[in-house]
Amino acid sequence: MVSAGLEILGLSLCVIGSLLVMVSCGLPMWKVTAFTESNIVVAQTFWDGLWMTCVVQSTGQMQCKVHDSVLALSRDLQAARALTIISSVMGVLGLMVVIAGAQCTNCIRTEYVKARVVNAGGVIYIISGLFVLVPLCWMANNIISDFYNPQVPAPNKKEIGAALYIGWAASAQLLIGGSLLCCSCPSSANSGYSVKYSPTKRATPNGDYDKRNYV
């Protein structure tokens, strides 16, 4: 019963984490314009994402342009695009593996094999969380380094966008949920010991039981 509860909790966290990874991958707010000058009234705000760059006017209008070339992107954006896609695919793969080995399904009959399949799904989710964590930390380090670099002009300085915070939350849920799935153990009810029954006692033709049954 405890093992089933861990599976449900771990799978719920992993599914939510995978969905947040997909949301973070699609949002354009990975890098946001930093307001470092004394004048806080600006006409435009720039958002840089994995797939597009958006300009938000002070009037509320927003215009976005898809990146023309992948090779023209910076190395951190290229790595983030690749690793977040791989993490999303691994999240779907991990869901299929965990469902196949879950205690509430009958895809696999043997309890020991089911537990090991769930453990494998947990490992997939942990790897998925690490894949999305690497580009997030890399990009955050570049943003912070450029922000405090005096050689970078003030208009070119960026801040950490909302997509990075969502990605960190997704990574934490994937790591925690995958760890819980790795704690799944086979049920103790099916321990592999067989129950032996004694043969049925038969009555003799005169209606009495054979005395050998009592020896």
Overall mean pLDDT score? Answer: 81
Instruction: List the strand order in the largest sheet.
Output: 4-3-2-1-5
Helical percent range?
40-55%
> Gyration radius, to the nearest Å?
29 Å
Distance linking N and C termini: 44 Å
Tally of strands: 5
Unreliable residue runs: 189-195
Write the H/E string, N to C.
HEEEEHHEH
The shape, in one word, is elongated
Kindly describe this structure:
The protein is 51% helix and 10% strand. With 215 residues, the protein is α+β, with helices and mostly antiparallel strands. A hairpin with a 4-residue loop joins strand 3 and strand 4. The chain has helices at 2-26, 75-101, 111-147, 162-182, and strands at 31-33, 44-48, 52-57, 62-66, 158-160. The chain contains 4 helices and 5 strands; from the N terminus they run αββββααβα. A 5-stranded antiparallel β-sheet has the order 4-3-2-1-5.
Concise structural overview:
With 215 residues, the chain is α+β, with helices and mostly antiparallel strands.
Task: Chart the SSEs and their pairings.
Elements: H1 2-26, E1 31-33, E2 44-48, E3 52-57, E4 62-66, H2 75-101, H3 111-147, E5 158-160, H4 162-182
Antiparallel strand pairs: 1-2, 1-5, 2-3, 3-4
